[in-house]
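Work Package 3 (structural annotation) set out to generate three-dimensional models for the target panel prioritized at the project kickoff. During this period the team completed the workflow that converts sequence records into discrete structure tokens, so that structures can be stored uniformly alongside our sequence database. As a representative example, we reproduce one entry of 69 residues exactly as it appears in the project archive.
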Amino acid sequence: MELIEDIRYTIGVRQLYDKRKETIERCFADAKEKHGMRYTLVRGLSQVSKWVRLKFAAMNLKKYALHAA
């Protein structure tokens, strides 16, 4: 575990790890704040999975539309 932590704090890897906050973590934060993904209204794994896929598909379409404009 110490070896992994040492690798994570090297110069190149640290920059990639910092970039993660701007891309991946931001996507989930936006989903929770702007698209109502803090709570779900449906029950069951299959229904929740479908609901989450629909939400992220809508987010991706919105992102593509903004990039195209």
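The chain has one domain: 2-68.
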